[in-house]
Write a structure and sequence with these properties.
This protein is mostly helical and 557 residues long. 71% of the residues lie in helices and 0% in strands.
């Protein structure tokens, strides 16, 4: 089987592809036969064919058989002139059809060589590469093909030229390299196999052609003086931008350095001025101390020589001298020295100084107390603000009822209890944080809860109901004069007051037994059944009344 496949391969030197030529056209240059160039257009070929057909038509020569000068070239009796006319017709049939012409052109010998980089560098770029691009332009399916141009060509056209060649779409047919002739196939599967083998060979040549054209475009783009000039200009622009940014950065650093240096200089000047001021003040202080020391000695001598005072008074005088400044000491010395009665003068000065000292101490104490009071007020205000922030907004009666239910639903010891209670309140429309819930629970545990409030009201109403029956009856006429009090309100107040302690306990137990998740009407119906002697409406009014009392208690607190 393999031998049969090999036998069906074409001969090594045979160049027969998809185009089938008649035997008398094999080896004939069709373009030379029609006297046209390979780059001629279809219209030019048609015009030339008509011209040659008129020249070589057999009717112009009176037929081949009557021509004694020319012998028949074929067994069929055609003369050379008639055969020339047949060749012209067949050549035109091939070249006038675009597909067949392309197949024929692909069988011609062409120059696929590409100059190397050294050849391009040593010669003129445009003179050496322009003919190469022109030779390969014949294979392009897109026409017209852009030219390489010159040094003055716009750079946009240059980029367009290279984009065209990097994406070159070639129509070149490589069926001339097919290994098998499909006409030799004996059955359909064999024909298909031959075609696949031929396609593989064609694909190899097409890839090579593609690489060759890309290599040509890359070589040209690499050595193109216009592209190089553009790259150099772009690099120069990048360098300028880099230098500009570096200069800008250096200027910013210099500015920051100058600011730092100026700041340091000012700090040094301020420090030097401060040190100089401290030195002068220190020297002045020393001088004042020396002056004050001399004045104290002067006053001491004057007192010892002119005054008769006790030792205790002398110590007080010394304390006064130590407390006074130099100017005050000098004035005191002058007054004592000029006084006729030095004893009385010194005692008067001593008394006046003690009074001023006492007043100063009293003022200092008052200021300390004022400062302490302000600090206490500030601390209390902060404490109240923190408490208010923890407590949040005021709790309404419905919210307190939900809190009581949540405390029973989530007992102590449950993990994340306060978070669950806060989520329960949020799910019922009351947004509270865990600290708020904890603070309110602590407050309720220290004061009155809903249950204790209801029990207290029941106890008060039971203990005071009988003694107050007559005063209530006497006050009834006065109620008629009150416009805002209706008969329904009186009945409501009476129904609220007529609750025993046992009924109150039954109501509290029923509220726990029948949760708020039940239907509202159904829940209160069940609660009324558990409270003896009370209807559903009375139970509802009692609950609202207790809730209002709790809210009032919270507001008072």
């Amino acid at each position: 089987a393999d031998a049969s496949w090999r036998r069906k391969r074409k001969e090594g030197g045979e160049k027969r592809g998809a185009l089938k030529l008649s035997p008398h056209l094999v080896g004939v240059d069709l373009y030379a036969l029609l006297e046209v160039s390979e780059t001629s257009s279809a219209e030019q070929i048609k015009k030339q064919y008509r011209k040659l057909a008129l020249q070589h038509h057999p009717d112009k020569h009176g037929g081949g058989a009557k021509n004694n000068d020319s012998a028949p070239a074929e067994k069929g009796g055609l003369s050379e002139k008639d055969m020339l006319f047949v060749k012209i017709q067949e050549a035109y049939d091939i070249l006038s059809d675009q597909t067949r012409r392309r197949q024929y052109d692909s069988t011609l010998e062409v120059d696929d060589s590409i100059p190397d980089e050294a050849e391009v560098v040593s010669a003129d770029f445009y003179e050496i590469l322009a003919p190469v691009f022109k030779r390969n332009a014949r294979w392009s399916t897109r026409q017209p093909v852009p030219e390489i141009g010159s040094q003055s060509t716009d750079i946009a056209k240059v980029h367009k030229f290279y984009d065209f060649w990097f994406n070159f779409d070639s129509w070149r047919d490589f069926s001339v390299h097919d290994e098998y002739n499909l006409d030799d196939a004996e059955f359909r599967e064999e024909r298909r196999w031959m075609d696949r083998q031929n396609q593989k060979v064609r694909k190899k040549y097409q890839d090579a052609e593609r690489r060759r054209l890309i290599r040509l475009a890359e070589l040209s783009e690499k050595l193109d003086p216009r592209i190089r000039a553009e790259k150099e200009a772009r690099e120069a622009k990048k360098r300028e931008e880099k230098e500009r940014r570096a200069k800008l950065k250096q200027d910013e650093e210099d500015a920051r350095r100058r600011v730092v240096e100026e700041k340091k200089r000012k700090e040094d000047e301020e420090r030097a001025a401060r040190e100089e001021k401290e030195r002068l003040e220190k020297e002045m202080g020393k001088q004042q101390k020396q002056v004050a020391k001399g004045l104290r000695q002067r006053l001491k001598k004057c007192v010892q020589s002119r005054c008769k005072i006790t030792t205790l008074e002398l110590e007080s005088v010394q304390d006064m001298c130590l407390a006074l400044e130099a100017e005050a000491l000098e004035a005191l010395c002058s007054r004592v020295e000029e006084a006729k009665e030095a004893d009385a003068a010194i005692r008067a000065e001593l008394k006046d100084w003690q009074q001023r000292k006492a007043a100063e101490l009293e003022e200092q104490e008052r200021q300390r107390q004022e400062t302490r009071r302000k600090e206490e007020q500030k601390a209390n205000a902060a404490k109240n603000a923190a408490a208010a922030s923890a407590a949040g907004s005021a709790w309404v009666a419905d919210e307190l009822g939900l809190l009581a239910k949540a405390l029973q639903k989530f007992p102590g010891g449950m993990g994340g209890r306060w978070g669950l209670i806060a989520n329960f309140l949020c799910s019922n429309g009351f947004h509270r944080t865990e600290p708020e819930v904890i603070a309110k629970t602590k407050e309720l545990s220290e004061g009155q809860s809903l249950r204790s409030m209801g029990a207290r009201i029941s106890a008060e109403s039971t203990g005071l109901q009988q003694p107050k029956a007559k005063p209530t009856a006497k006050a009834a006429p006065a109620a008629k004069t009150t416009p805002n009090v209706t008969a329904g309100a009186v009945e409501q107040a009476a129904s609220i007051a007529e609750w025993t302690a046992e009924q109150q306990k039954c109501l509290e137990a029923a509220l726990q037994t029948h949760p708020a998740s039940l239907d509202k009407n159904e829940r209160w119906r069940l609660i009324a059944e558990d409270v003896p002697g009370k209807t559903k409406g009375q139970c509802v009014e009692r609950f609202k009344y207790l809730r209002e009392q709790v809210a009032k208690q919270q507001k008072k607190g």
